[in-house]
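Q: Got a minute? One more chain.
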Amino acid sequence: MKKNTYILRAFSSLPRIKLLLCLKEKEKNVSELMKNCGLSQSAVSQHLKKLKNWGLVSCQKQGKEVYYKLNKKNVAEIAEKLLVFYKSL
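A: Always. Here it is, folded:
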């Protein structure tokens, strides 16, 4: 699949949009993302794996924790606009 298709798939899921928004301000670990996004550990991990494979987030290990961050700031801007759109439906 083309890279553009992956990007569109990333924004087709409300939980992934929420994860991207949770990473807007600073990097976070899975526990923080679970708390902030209201998702289970397995859901967060599955979505982060996809977002990482698609090049939208990256991770860095710090001690025992893995922290995730956005690769590009405009990803959060797009996610914000899509969330507003979803809420208007």
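A: The longest strand covers residues 57-62.
Q: Perfect, thanks.
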